[in-house]
Every structure is written in structure tokens, then in C-alpha cells.
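Q: Focus on the chain.
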Amino acid sequence: MRRLNKKPQDAAEHRLAKALQPEAGAIARAGAMSVAAGLLWMIMAAAVATVFGRLVADTAAPALIWAMAALFLSAGGLRIGLGLWTAAILDRATDRILARERAALLALQDRLSPRAARSPSASVAALLTDKLPMLGPYVLRYRPASLRAAVLPLVFLAASGVMSWAVALILAVAGPLIPVFMALVGLAARQASERQMDEIGSLSGLLGDRLAALTDIRLLDARDRMGADFADRAEGLRARTMAVLRVAFLSSTVLELFSAIGVAMVAVYVGFALLGELGFGAWSTPLTLSEGVFVLMLAPEFFQPLRDLAGAWHDKAAALAVARELVALEQAQGPEILGAGGPAAAAACAPAITLSGLRKGAVQFPDMTILPGAAVALTGPSGSGKSTLIALIGGLEMPDDGAVLLDAAPLEAASADAWRAQVAWVPQAAQFLDGPLREGLVLGAHGAPTEEDIAAALGLAAADEVVARLPKGLDTVLGEMGGGVSGGEARRLMLARAALSRRAVVLADEPTADLDPETAAEVIAALLALKARGATLIVATHDPALAAAMDRQLVLGGPGMEGAA
């Protein structure tokens, strides 16, 4: 019967199980081999106990001693071999898990629409490089330790009980103290690990921000302040790391105490029983030397799996903290870009673009058709959906209702890649490759542009003077945010890139925002030059001058369209 009141699985635990699921078979095999290696200790203990008992009773034949020695060495060698084999299997499984999770995280970020809210790149980088590897100890240590702790103590307890119920009683009383204490420290270990994960991400984010603003920091002579900030945050990370280590060392110390007391109590009982001072607790009275040595050798191995599990408990806490961060990142993801994101050949000419019943969220867009070579301005108040409509036309997001038709064919995931191969995107916030400007300009260019082609595109966008002022010209590294050029200059460089791409459609989001009239006029002239070459031009803008320069205006959040093509 289904339990209706069953507690739902924690999201982090579910995410961690999902990460390990493809390697579940390898992890299970490694765990079984680890258990088998632990069980071999019973054979080794029996061999030693037999030899001691026969030697004391003076009944040990040389053949028996050699046979027991061979049995002990064989079992020991097999135990070592199984341990090495287990470690090799888990090492390979861990590498595959980390590679798979890194690839999935990068694909998740790569699939985001340019308009989606993104996590800071430094935080994602910290998750990729510093935090995901913390899944490794969970796979390598905690998983096999948890399986050994579930099987071996029960087997050793049963084997000890066959020889002495008193020893089994001692182990049965002392053993559960370790899991109880583990449950008590589990919450503290989880909280300490989560705080450590947060501080690692925060420090990585600080580093990324400071690197991006390094030029400004030098100009403002704020290097000492920056160094002090890093020192403070590094001290915070040190304190949180020490908190994790304190929990781990404290739990290990207490659990070592419990196991030492349990082994000592078994040793005391066995010693007094062999001396004849205790005449109870054994099925054969008095307890024989072989039985005493056997249970005495089993006692430490009874506690060892529990000690291993306790020592690896913080590995589970760290893995859950990483999984919890993965869950938060995945749940916060914005809309994904349509299509597979693969390369596609551009069509020879632009199609007619028709908006039919298009709706995104609470915004219902008017129906219209944009013919090839037209220039359309999307205008309206802030929040009316101008940037959203640009993204929908570009195939960067999926509408909630309606469709964008390209020559009567709906824009969907199957056709999005081919459509975007025809589109040049000019964003409001310009971004560059972290390399020479030349590489960024020719990215996605039509064919292999020559120096003359690059010069012509720069001239068309009125960006040739911008490049001439740069220290190394086209070989200047501007950084991702375009350090060293103004906002208007950066947009003119983006227009030059659009000109080099020779795409049939140009989408521009607020290309003249925050620019002075003279710079805005240069950007408008560059856009009109692209239209004069035959490109369909669609711009989202608040700028009356830019809107007036277009053939047609679509007023969003208003009564409808104004003007005519």
C-alpha cells in the first residue's frame, strides 16, 4: 500500500542521486567488492586464531602452520587487490561523473537566451573548478563506506555471537553510539559545508569583478583597498574552512573514543575469560584461546566500517552542498534559446517576417508583416515589450502563444538555427571576445574577409576612426566589456561586425540609447547604410530621431502602428 505521508526526498539528495545514476552500476560493483574485501578479514582472523590455539595447546603440526600462513597471505593479498580494484573503478566513475556534470552545466549556460538572467560567470566558474570536484570524495569514500557499514558490522556481530554472546552484547551496545553521534553532528557538518560553498562562490565573484574593473582600479589608485578586500574575504574563507575541519576532527575524535572503549571492553572480557576469572558469556565454557583471539581480532573490524563512515560524513555534507547549489542554479534558469545551437548555412535572401497572434507573458503583440529590405522601428514606453519582440523575432525565445512566420513557415526549434544564420544581432550592451579586436569583428563573417573588407565595414559603420585611436589598432584587446572605448564607439564596432557578416536581417536593441546626439547620428547613419545594402532592419528604440529614420513604426503599448513602409 502506498504511504501517503511519506516524506519527500530532499531536492539536493535527488539531484545528487541523479548525478550518480549513470554510474550506479560501477559504484554498486565497487561497493560489493569493498564488502567482499572486508569479509576476507574473517578468514584471516580464523587462520591466526587457529595457529595461536594450536601452538598454545602444543598440537600445531608444521603443515597446519604453513597452510594457515598461506591462507592468511592469500586472503590478505586478495583483500589488497580488491581494495585497489575498487579504488580504480571508483576513480574512473568519478572522472566520468565530473566530466558529465561539467558538460551539462556548460551546456545549460550555453543554452540560455541572451536576455535571460544569468548567474555571475565567476560563480559558475567556481562551481565548475572548485566545487564540483567535491563530489569526488563522496563517491570514492562515502558510498563504499556506507555499504560496508550496512553489511560488515552485522556479519562480524553474528560471527562474534557464535563464539560469545557477551562479546556480541558489548558490540551491540557500543556500535549504535557511532551512528547516533553521526546523526547529531550531521546538521552542523551540512551547515558548515554550505557556508564554505557560499564563501568560495563569493570570493570567486569578487575576483571576477575586480579583474573586470582592473583598469578603473589602477586609475583610481585603489589597489590597496582591493588588496584589503581580498584579505578580508580570504580570512572569511579560512574561517569557514576551519569550521568544516573542526566538525570533522571533533566527530572523528569522539567516534574513535567510542570504538576504542568498545574494543577495550572486548579485550578485558576475553582476557579475564581466558584467565578463568569469568565463567559466563561463551557458549563453550571456558572460552578457548582460539575463540578469544578470533573475537578479539573481529572487534576492531566491527568498528572500522562505522569509523570510515563517520570520517566520510563531511564528504556527504560537502556533496549535498554542491548538489543544492546545482539545484538552485537550474531552478533559476531563464528561457532557453531555440534550436540546437549548431552551425547552419545562411539563406541567400531574407524572408518576409509575419507576426501572427504573438503573445509573451502579459504582452499581446499586434499582427504585422515585415517585407524583405524594410526598416521598422519598434517604439513604445518602457515595459511595452520592444526588447522581447526583438528576441522573439530573432528566435532567442519561444512565444507563449502565436508564431513568427518566415515566408509562411513558423519559426520553431527545427528551423531556429538556420534562421539565426541569417540574422545579425546588435545588442544594447556590446560584448567582445577576450582577444584581439580583429577576432571579434570577423566572428561569423561571410567567407574569409580581407583587410579591405574589414576596412570597408569599419568605414560603413563610421568606426574606422575608433580603431585608429586604439593603441594597437585591430590587434588591441578590449576585454569582454569593451574597456577603452565608449558606449557609442562599441556599438559602431558591433555594427561593423554586422556589416562583415553580410546577414540578411539586422536586429538592433536600443542602438542609440545613452548616446549624445552627434554619436547617435553616426550610429543611425551606419544602420541606414546596412539597409542600403539590402538588409532588413528591425530596431527597438526610444529615440525619436532613429524611429523617424525608419520606413515604418510599430508602437507597442499604444493604439497600433504608425507610418507606412
About this structure: The chain has two domains: 11-331, 353-563. Residues 1-8, 559-565 have pLDDT under 50 and may be disordered.
